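Batch manifest, entry 17 of 40.
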Amino acid sequence: MRHVRSLAGLTGVLVVLGAIWAGPAAARSEVDDPPPAPTDLVLVGTGGSALLSWQQPPGERARSFRVYEGTTEVARNTTTSVALTNLGFARTRTYTVTAVDTEGRESAPSTPVSRTLGISGAPPQCLPAGLATLSASQVTPSAVTLSWVNVGDPGTVTVTGGPDGPVSTGSSGIRIGGLAPATTYTFSVVRRPHCSGSPSFPATTVTVTTAPGRSGTPTAPVDATVAGRTDRTLTLSWTPPVAGTPATRYAIYESGRRVATTSGTSATLRGLYHAAWYTYQVTALDARGNESPAGTVAGYTATCQARPPRPALVTAVALSASSVRLDWTYDAAAMSYTVYAGDEVVGTSVGSGTVVSGLASATSYRLRVAATLPNGCGASPTSAAAWVDTAAGPASRPARPTDVRLASGDPFTGTMTLHWTQPADGDPAVAYRVYRGADVIATNGTNQVAIALPKATTQVVTIAAVNAAGLESAQSAPLTVQVPYLPPP
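Output type: C-alpha coordinates
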Protein backbone atom coordinates (compact mmCIF):
# COMPACT_ATOMS: atom_id res chain seq x y z
CA MET A 1 0.00 0.00 0.00
CA ARG A 2 1.33 3.45 -0.90
CA HIS A 3 2.01 5.97 1.81
CA VAL A 4 1.49 9.68 1.22
CA ARG A 5 3.36 12.34 3.19
CA SER A 6 1.57 15.66 2.82
CA LEU A 7 3.07 19.05 3.46
CA ALA A 8 1.49 22.14 4.94
CA GLY A 9 2.39 25.34 3.05
CA LEU A 10 4.51 28.01 4.73
CA THR A 11 3.34 30.63 4.28
CA GLY A 12 10.60 64.89 -0.72
CA VAL A 13 8.94 65.52 -4.12
CA LEU A 14 10.74 63.95 -7.05
CA VAL A 15 10.27 64.27 -10.78
CA VAL A 16 12.02 61.46 -12.66
CA LEU A 17 13.10 62.36 -16.15
CA GLY A 18 12.05 59.80 -18.75
CA ALA A 19 12.28 56.15 -17.69
CA ILE A 20 15.45 56.53 -15.65
CA TRP A 21 15.63 53.83 -12.98
CA ALA A 22 11.94 53.19 -13.53
CA GLY A 23 9.91 51.70 -10.70
CA PRO A 24 7.20 49.05 -11.08
CA ALA A 25 4.57 51.61 -12.08
CA ALA A 26 6.64 53.06 -14.91
CA ALA A 27 5.52 52.37 -18.46
CA ARG A 28 7.36 49.60 -20.29
CA SER A 29 9.31 50.32 -23.41
CA GLU A 30 7.44 49.85 -26.67
CA VAL A 31 10.49 48.04 -28.06
CA ASP A 32 10.78 44.38 -27.14
CA ASP A 33 14.51 44.62 -26.46
CA PRO A 34 16.63 43.13 -23.69
CA PRO A 35 18.12 45.50 -21.10
CA PRO A 36 21.41 47.27 -21.80
CA ALA A 37 24.62 45.49 -20.86
CA PRO A 38 26.26 46.33 -17.50
CA THR A 39 29.26 48.69 -17.58
CA ASP A 40 32.24 49.74 -15.46
CA LEU A 41 33.17 46.28 -14.18
CA VAL A 42 35.63 46.32 -11.28
CA LEU A 43 37.28 43.14 -9.96
CA VAL A 44 39.06 43.37 -6.61
CA GLY A 45 40.65 40.24 -5.18
CA THR A 46 43.21 38.90 -2.76
CA GLY A 47 44.10 35.26 -2.33
CA GLY A 48 41.35 32.93 -3.49
CA SER A 49 38.38 35.31 -3.42
CA ALA A 50 37.29 38.47 -5.21
CA LEU A 51 34.53 41.07 -5.31
CA LEU A 52 33.13 41.86 -8.74
CA SER A 53 31.01 45.01 -9.08
CA TRP A 54 29.45 46.88 -11.98
CA GLN A 55 27.02 49.64 -12.98
CA GLN A 56 23.72 49.20 -14.80
CA PRO A 57 22.88 51.85 -17.41
CA PRO A 58 19.52 53.67 -17.23
CA GLY A 59 16.42 52.08 -18.64
CA GLU A 60 14.03 49.48 -17.34
CA ARG A 61 15.30 48.14 -14.02
CA ALA A 62 17.05 44.78 -14.34
CA ARG A 63 15.54 41.98 -12.25
CA SER A 64 18.86 40.20 -11.77
CA PHE A 65 22.40 39.80 -13.08
CA ARG A 66 24.41 36.79 -14.25
CA VAL A 67 28.19 36.48 -14.04
CA TYR A 68 30.10 34.38 -16.54
CA GLU A 69 33.65 33.07 -16.68
CA GLY A 70 34.00 32.32 -20.35
CA THR A 71 30.70 30.67 -21.29
CA THR A 72 30.13 29.20 -17.82
CA GLU A 73 27.69 30.93 -15.48
CA VAL A 74 29.38 31.22 -12.08
CA ALA A 75 27.07 33.50 -10.06
CA ARG A 76 23.81 35.39 -9.96
CA ASN A 77 22.64 38.32 -7.88
CA THR A 78 19.91 40.93 -7.60
CA THR A 79 22.36 43.76 -6.93
CA THR A 80 25.36 45.22 -8.73
CA SER A 81 28.09 43.16 -7.07
CA VAL A 82 28.87 39.56 -6.22
CA ALA A 83 31.42 37.81 -4.02
CA LEU A 84 33.41 35.14 -5.88
CA THR A 85 35.12 32.40 -3.88
CA ASN A 86 37.18 29.24 -4.38
CA LEU A 87 39.19 30.91 -7.13
CA GLY A 88 42.63 29.49 -6.33
CA PHE A 89 45.83 31.50 -6.20
CA ALA A 90 47.96 33.16 -8.89
CA ARG A 91 45.38 32.56 -11.62
CA THR A 92 44.05 35.05 -14.13
CA ARG A 93 40.26 35.24 -14.10
CA THR A 94 38.14 36.94 -16.77
CA TYR A 95 34.47 37.73 -16.22
CA THR A 96 31.53 39.26 -18.06
CA VAL A 97 28.13 40.24 -16.64
CA THR A 98 24.67 40.30 -18.22
CA ALA A 99 21.43 41.92 -17.02
CA VAL A 100 18.10 40.07 -17.03
CA ASP A 101 14.74 41.85 -17.09
CA THR A 102 11.41 40.84 -15.54
CA GLU A 103 10.51 38.79 -18.61
CA GLY A 104 13.76 36.81 -18.52
CA ARG A 105 15.39 38.59 -21.47
CA GLU A 106 19.16 38.71 -21.09
CA SER A 107 21.36 41.56 -22.24
CA ALA A 108 24.48 41.25 -24.31
CA PRO A 109 27.56 40.55 -22.17
CA SER A 110 29.50 43.43 -20.69
CA THR A 111 33.02 44.27 -21.68
CA PRO A 112 35.21 41.64 -19.97
CA VAL A 113 37.27 42.38 -16.87
CA SER A 114 40.37 40.35 -15.91
CA ARG A 115 42.57 40.11 -12.87
CA THR A 116 45.42 37.92 -11.68
CA LEU A 117 44.82 37.04 -8.06
CA GLY A 118 47.79 37.14 -5.73
CA ILE A 119 49.20 34.42 -3.54
CA SER A 120 47.93 34.58 0.03
CA GLY A 121 50.01 37.07 2.01
CA ALA A 122 51.29 38.87 -1.10
CA PRO A 123 49.69 41.94 -2.68
CA PRO A 124 47.57 41.28 -5.77
CA GLN A 125 48.49 42.50 -9.19
CA CYS A 126 47.71 46.20 -9.64
CA LEU A 127 46.44 46.90 -13.12
CA PRO A 128 47.26 50.13 -14.98
CA ALA A 129 44.81 52.93 -14.27
CA GLY A 130 43.62 55.10 -17.10
CA LEU A 131 40.46 56.27 -18.78
CA ALA A 132 39.15 56.07 -22.31
CA THR A 133 36.67 57.84 -24.59
CA LEU A 134 36.59 61.12 -22.66
CA SER A 135 33.76 63.24 -24.05
CA ALA A 136 31.68 66.32 -23.26
CA SER A 137 27.89 66.53 -23.56
CA GLN A 138 24.81 68.41 -22.28
CA VAL A 139 26.60 71.74 -22.73
CA THR A 140 24.63 74.77 -21.51
CA PRO A 141 25.70 78.38 -20.84
CA SER A 142 26.68 77.38 -17.30
CA ALA A 143 27.45 73.64 -17.18
CA VAL A 144 28.80 70.58 -18.99
CA THR A 145 28.83 66.81 -18.44
CA LEU A 146 32.13 64.98 -18.84
CA SER A 147 32.00 61.21 -19.40
CA TRP A 148 34.62 58.47 -19.75
CA VAL A 149 35.23 54.73 -19.39
CA ASN A 150 37.31 53.61 -16.42
CA VAL A 151 40.16 51.21 -17.16
CA GLY A 152 42.09 49.09 -14.63
CA ASP A 153 41.78 48.80 -10.88
CA PRO A 154 39.32 50.84 -8.75
CA GLY A 155 40.45 54.41 -8.54
CA THR A 156 39.58 58.06 -8.21
CA VAL A 157 39.19 60.45 -11.13
CA THR A 158 40.22 64.06 -10.54
CA VAL A 159 38.94 66.78 -12.89
CA THR A 160 40.58 70.22 -12.97
CA GLY A 161 39.78 73.29 -15.05
CA GLY A 162 36.43 74.28 -13.53
CA PRO A 163 35.76 77.41 -11.49
CA ASP A 164 35.74 75.52 -8.17
CA GLY A 165 39.14 73.89 -8.65
CA PRO A 166 39.80 70.11 -8.62
CA VAL A 167 36.76 67.82 -8.28
CA SER A 168 37.11 64.08 -7.59
CA THR A 169 34.78 61.15 -8.23
CA GLY A 170 34.86 57.36 -8.41
CA SER A 171 32.18 57.33 -11.12
CA SER A 172 32.46 57.35 -14.91
CA GLY A 173 31.13 60.87 -15.37
CA ILE A 174 30.71 64.22 -13.64
CA ARG A 175 28.68 67.42 -13.97
CA ILE A 176 30.69 70.65 -13.87
CA GLY A 177 28.57 73.76 -13.18
CA GLY A 178 29.13 77.41 -12.30
CA LEU A 179 30.64 78.14 -15.74
CA ALA A 180 30.49 81.43 -17.62
CA PRO A 181 28.53 81.60 -20.90
CA ALA A 182 30.32 81.64 -24.28
CA THR A 183 33.60 80.75 -22.60
CA THR A 184 36.16 78.10 -23.56
CA TYR A 185 37.34 75.72 -20.84
CA THR A 186 39.97 73.01 -21.01
CA PHE A 187 39.36 70.22 -18.50
CA SER A 188 42.14 67.91 -17.40
CA VAL A 189 41.13 64.43 -16.20
CA VAL A 190 43.48 62.06 -14.32
CA ARG A 191 42.64 58.65 -12.89
CA ARG A 192 44.67 57.23 -9.99
CA PRO A 193 44.22 53.69 -8.65
CA HIS A 194 43.56 52.94 -5.00
CA CYS A 195 46.26 50.25 -4.92
CA SER A 196 49.96 51.03 -5.01
CA GLY A 197 52.37 50.19 -7.79
CA SER A 198 50.31 51.23 -10.79
CA PRO A 199 52.12 53.46 -13.29
CA SER A 200 51.06 57.09 -13.53
CA PHE A 201 49.19 58.03 -16.67
CA PRO A 202 49.29 61.48 -18.27
CA ALA A 203 46.18 63.61 -17.99
CA THR A 204 43.49 63.36 -20.65
CA THR A 205 42.06 66.72 -21.73
CA VAL A 206 38.91 67.95 -23.42
CA THR A 207 38.10 71.50 -24.52
CA VAL A 208 34.54 72.83 -24.29
CA THR A 209 32.95 76.17 -25.19
CA THR A 210 29.78 76.91 -23.25
CA ALA A 211 26.66 78.15 -25.02
CA PRO A 212 25.81 81.86 -25.10
CA GLY A 213 23.55 83.18 -22.36
CA ARG A 214 23.26 85.51 -19.40
CA SER A 215 25.95 85.20 -16.76
CA GLY A 216 25.43 84.36 -13.11
CA THR A 217 24.58 81.13 -11.28
CA PRO A 218 23.63 80.10 -7.77
CA THR A 219 26.38 78.77 -5.54
CA ALA A 220 26.41 75.08 -4.75
CA PRO A 221 23.78 73.52 -2.45
CA VAL A 222 25.11 73.07 1.09
CA ASP A 223 25.44 69.98 3.30
CA ALA A 224 24.04 67.40 0.89
CA THR A 225 23.45 64.19 2.82
CA VAL A 226 21.63 60.85 2.74
CA ALA A 227 18.58 61.40 4.94
CA GLY A 228 17.00 57.96 4.52
CA ARG A 229 17.40 54.65 2.79
CA THR A 230 15.63 51.41 1.93
CA ASP A 231 16.75 48.47 -0.17
CA ARG A 232 15.49 50.25 -3.32
CA THR A 233 15.67 53.97 -2.47
CA LEU A 234 17.95 56.71 -1.20
CA THR A 235 16.50 59.99 0.11
CA LEU A 236 18.83 62.98 -0.29
CA SER A 237 18.50 66.33 1.44
CA TRP A 238 20.46 69.57 1.31
CA THR A 239 20.41 73.23 2.31
CA PRO A 240 19.77 75.97 -0.29
CA PRO A 241 22.81 77.86 -1.59
CA VAL A 242 23.84 80.92 0.35
CA ALA A 243 24.94 83.21 -2.49
CA GLY A 244 24.67 83.84 -6.22
CA THR A 245 21.43 84.09 -8.14
CA PRO A 246 18.37 82.70 -6.31
CA ALA A 247 17.79 78.97 -6.74
CA THR A 248 14.34 77.93 -7.99
CA ARG A 249 14.93 74.19 -8.39
CA TYR A 250 17.58 71.51 -8.10
CA ALA A 251 18.99 68.81 -10.38
CA ILE A 252 20.46 65.47 -9.30
CA TYR A 253 23.11 63.68 -11.35
CA GLU A 254 24.60 60.20 -11.34
CA SER A 255 27.86 59.80 -13.32
CA GLY A 256 27.10 63.14 -15.00
CA ARG A 257 23.64 61.99 -16.13
CA ARG A 258 20.65 63.91 -14.79
CA VAL A 259 18.32 61.50 -12.99
CA ALA A 260 15.88 63.86 -11.25
CA THR A 261 14.82 67.44 -10.62
CA THR A 262 12.87 68.90 -7.69
CA SER A 263 11.71 72.26 -6.43
CA GLY A 264 12.30 71.27 -2.80
CA THR A 265 15.42 70.55 -0.80
CA SER A 266 15.04 66.77 -0.70
CA ALA A 267 14.43 63.97 -3.19
CA THR A 268 13.98 60.22 -3.14
CA LEU A 269 15.78 58.22 -5.82
CA ARG A 270 13.86 55.01 -6.56
CA GLY A 271 14.39 51.74 -8.39
CA LEU A 272 17.91 51.27 -6.99
CA TYR A 273 19.64 47.98 -6.19
CA HIS A 274 20.08 46.78 -2.62
CA ALA A 275 23.50 46.75 -0.93
CA ALA A 276 24.85 49.10 -3.61
CA TRP A 277 26.98 52.24 -3.37
CA TYR A 278 25.68 55.33 -5.17
CA THR A 279 27.30 58.73 -5.68
CA TYR A 280 25.19 61.72 -6.67
CA GLN A 281 25.78 65.39 -7.44
CA VAL A 282 23.19 68.03 -6.52
CA THR A 283 23.17 71.35 -8.38
CA ALA A 284 21.01 74.46 -7.97
CA LEU A 285 19.32 76.13 -10.97
CA ASP A 286 18.02 79.68 -11.14
CA ALA A 287 14.98 80.93 -13.03
CA ARG A 288 17.00 81.15 -16.29
CA GLY A 289 18.23 77.55 -15.94
CA ASN A 290 21.79 78.54 -15.09
CA GLU A 291 23.41 75.84 -12.99
CA SER A 292 25.63 76.01 -9.92
CA PRO A 293 28.66 73.89 -9.10
CA ALA A 294 27.64 70.57 -7.58
CA GLY A 295 27.51 69.29 -4.03
CA THR A 296 28.40 65.58 -3.80
CA VAL A 297 26.67 62.97 -1.64
CA ALA A 298 27.20 59.21 -1.51
CA GLY A 299 25.73 56.30 0.37
CA TYR A 300 24.66 52.66 0.43
CA THR A 301 21.18 51.32 -0.03
CA ALA A 302 19.97 48.93 2.68
CA THR A 303 21.74 45.58 2.60
CA CYS A 304 18.76 43.27 3.02
CA GLN A 305 15.97 43.09 0.47
CA ALA A 306 12.45 43.71 1.73
CA ARG A 307 11.19 41.14 -0.78
CA PRO A 308 13.95 38.71 -1.71
CA PRO A 309 13.15 36.31 -4.55
CA ARG A 310 12.45 32.68 -3.85
CA PRO A 311 14.16 29.72 -5.51
CA ALA A 312 12.51 28.86 -8.82
CA LEU A 313 12.27 26.08 -11.41
CA VAL A 314 12.56 23.38 -8.76
CA THR A 315 12.69 19.87 -10.25
CA ALA A 316 12.74 16.59 -8.34
CA VAL A 317 13.68 13.19 -9.78
CA ALA A 318 13.58 9.94 -7.82
CA LEU A 319 16.91 8.11 -7.91
CA SER A 320 15.84 5.09 -5.87
CA ALA A 321 13.43 3.97 -3.17
CA SER A 322 15.38 6.10 -0.68
CA SER A 323 16.74 9.13 -2.55
CA VAL A 324 15.66 12.05 -4.72
CA ARG A 325 17.69 14.60 -6.68
CA LEU A 326 16.55 18.24 -6.55
CA ASP A 327 17.72 21.09 -8.78
CA TRP A 328 16.63 24.74 -8.83
CA THR A 329 17.69 28.23 -9.83
CA TYR A 330 18.10 31.31 -7.65
CA ASP A 331 18.63 34.84 -8.95
CA ALA A 332 20.15 36.27 -5.76
CA ALA A 333 23.20 35.46 -3.64
CA ALA A 334 22.73 32.67 -1.08
CA MET A 335 24.91 31.24 1.66
CA SER A 336 23.12 27.88 1.50
CA TYR A 337 19.77 26.26 0.81
CA THR A 338 17.38 24.23 2.97
CA VAL A 339 15.06 21.56 1.59
CA TYR A 340 11.73 21.03 3.36
CA ALA A 341 9.20 18.21 3.33
CA GLY A 342 6.37 19.90 5.18
CA ASP A 343 7.97 21.67 8.13
CA GLU A 344 10.67 19.02 8.34
CA VAL A 345 14.18 19.80 7.11
CA VAL A 346 15.28 16.89 4.93
CA GLY A 347 18.39 18.33 3.27
CA THR A 348 20.79 21.24 2.88
CA SER A 349 23.11 22.39 0.12
CA VAL A 350 25.52 25.23 -0.66
CA GLY A 351 24.77 24.98 -4.39
CA SER A 352 21.61 24.93 -6.48
CA GLY A 353 21.23 21.16 -6.40
CA THR A 354 21.34 18.32 -3.90
CA VAL A 355 20.40 14.71 -3.26
CA VAL A 356 17.98 14.05 -0.40
CA SER A 357 18.40 10.52 0.94
CA GLY A 358 16.97 8.38 3.71
CA LEU A 359 13.43 8.80 2.37
CA ALA A 360 10.65 6.24 2.73
CA SER A 361 9.92 3.81 -0.09
CA ALA A 362 6.86 4.20 -2.31
CA THR A 363 6.02 7.59 -0.84
CA SER A 364 4.92 10.83 -2.45
CA TYR A 365 6.91 13.87 -1.31
CA ARG A 366 6.11 17.54 -1.77
CA LEU A 367 9.47 19.30 -1.51
CA ARG A 368 10.29 23.00 -1.29
CA VAL A 369 13.52 24.99 -1.11
CA ALA A 370 14.46 28.18 0.79
CA ALA A 371 17.68 30.16 0.47
CA THR A 372 19.71 31.37 3.46
CA LEU A 373 20.70 34.94 2.55
CA PRO A 374 24.12 36.52 3.19
CA ASN A 375 24.84 39.38 5.61
CA GLY A 376 22.40 38.09 8.23
CA CYS A 377 19.40 38.87 6.01
CA GLY A 378 17.45 35.77 7.01
CA ALA A 379 15.88 33.36 4.55
CA SER A 380 14.03 33.74 1.28
CA PRO A 381 10.42 32.68 0.87
CA THR A 382 10.17 28.97 0.09
CA SER A 383 9.89 27.88 -3.51
CA ALA A 384 6.85 26.44 -5.19
CA ALA A 385 6.54 22.74 -4.42
CA ALA A 386 7.94 19.92 -6.52
CA TRP A 387 6.19 16.57 -6.17
CA VAL A 388 8.11 13.31 -6.51
CA ASP A 389 7.38 9.63 -5.79
CA THR A 390 10.10 7.34 -4.47
CA ALA A 391 10.22 3.82 -5.91
CA ALA A 392 8.93 0.74 -4.15
CA GLY A 393 11.49 -1.10 -2.03
CA PRO A 394 12.41 -2.41 1.42
CA ALA A 395 11.60 -0.20 4.38
CA SER A 396 14.87 -0.67 6.27
CA ARG A 397 17.63 1.98 6.13
CA PRO A 398 21.04 2.36 7.75
CA ALA A 399 21.39 4.91 10.53
CA ARG A 400 22.65 8.37 9.62
CA PRO A 401 26.48 8.68 9.96
CA THR A 402 27.61 10.92 12.82
CA ASP A 403 30.74 12.71 14.00
CA VAL A 404 32.04 13.45 10.49
CA ARG A 405 35.45 15.08 10.83
CA LEU A 406 38.65 15.88 9.00
CA ALA A 407 41.35 13.43 10.08
CA SER A 408 44.21 14.91 8.04
CA GLY A 409 45.01 17.08 5.04
CA ASP A 410 47.95 17.23 2.64
CA PRO A 411 48.74 20.82 1.55
CA PHE A 412 50.90 19.59 -1.32
CA THR A 413 48.26 17.42 -3.02
CA GLY A 414 44.96 18.65 -1.56
CA THR A 415 44.15 15.11 -0.37
CA MET A 416 41.83 15.24 2.62
CA THR A 417 41.14 12.22 4.84
CA LEU A 418 37.64 12.13 6.33
CA HIS A 419 36.46 9.95 9.20
CA TRP A 420 33.01 9.33 10.67
CA THR A 421 31.09 7.10 13.05
CA GLN A 422 28.39 4.66 11.99
CA PRO A 423 25.79 4.05 14.73
CA ALA A 424 24.91 0.41 15.44
CA ASP A 425 21.16 0.86 15.16
CA GLY A 426 19.51 0.62 11.76
CA ASP A 427 20.25 -1.71 8.85
CA PRO A 428 23.93 -2.66 8.53
CA ALA A 429 25.93 -0.37 6.23
CA VAL A 430 27.98 -2.09 3.52
CA ALA A 431 29.28 1.09 1.86
CA TYR A 432 29.37 4.88 2.15
CA ARG A 433 28.89 7.68 -0.38
CA VAL A 434 30.50 11.10 -0.02
CA TYR A 435 28.33 13.86 -1.48
CA ARG A 436 29.27 17.35 -2.57
CA GLY A 437 25.93 18.90 -3.39
CA ALA A 438 24.23 16.56 -5.86
CA ASP A 439 27.45 14.78 -6.85
CA VAL A 440 28.95 11.62 -5.39
CA ILE A 441 32.67 12.38 -5.17
CA ALA A 442 33.80 9.19 -3.43
CA THR A 443 32.57 5.76 -2.29
CA ASN A 444 34.18 3.49 0.29
CA GLY A 445 33.52 0.33 2.25
CA THR A 446 34.81 1.67 5.57
CA ASN A 447 34.13 4.75 7.68
CA GLN A 448 37.23 6.58 6.42
CA VAL A 449 38.13 7.89 2.98
CA ALA A 450 40.90 9.98 1.34
CA ILE A 451 39.71 12.42 -1.34
CA ALA A 452 41.74 14.72 -3.59
CA LEU A 453 39.90 18.06 -3.52
CA PRO A 454 40.67 21.31 -5.38
CA LYS A 455 43.50 23.05 -3.54
CA ALA A 456 42.95 26.40 -1.82
CA THR A 457 39.16 25.98 -1.84
CA THR A 458 36.36 25.49 0.67
CA GLN A 459 34.30 22.34 0.19
CA VAL A 460 31.12 21.16 1.93
CA VAL A 461 30.53 17.40 2.04
CA THR A 462 28.06 14.96 3.58
CA ILE A 463 28.16 11.18 4.09
CA ALA A 464 25.38 8.67 3.40
CA ALA A 465 25.48 5.03 4.54
CA VAL A 466 24.31 2.39 2.04
CA ASN A 467 22.79 -1.01 2.91
CA ALA A 468 22.96 -4.28 0.98
CA ALA A 469 19.86 -3.33 -1.04
CA GLY A 470 21.62 -0.16 -2.24
CA LEU A 471 19.36 2.14 -0.22
CA GLU A 472 20.81 5.14 1.59
CA SER A 473 20.50 6.58 5.05
CA ALA A 474 19.74 10.20 5.64
CA GLN A 475 22.90 12.19 4.98
CA SER A 476 25.17 13.28 7.80
CA ALA A 477 25.43 16.82 9.01
CA PRO A 478 27.52 18.82 6.51
CA LEU A 479 31.27 19.14 7.06
CA THR A 480 33.04 22.25 5.76
CA VAL A 481 36.59 21.50 4.65
CA GLN A 482 39.26 24.15 4.05
CA VAL A 483 41.58 22.52 1.54
CA PRO A 484 45.13 23.79 2.16
CA TYR A 485 47.64 24.79 -0.50
CA LEU A 486 51.36 25.50 -0.35
CA PRO A 487 52.42 27.39 -3.48
CA PRO A 488 55.80 26.58 -5.00
CA PRO A 489 58.68 28.73 -3.74
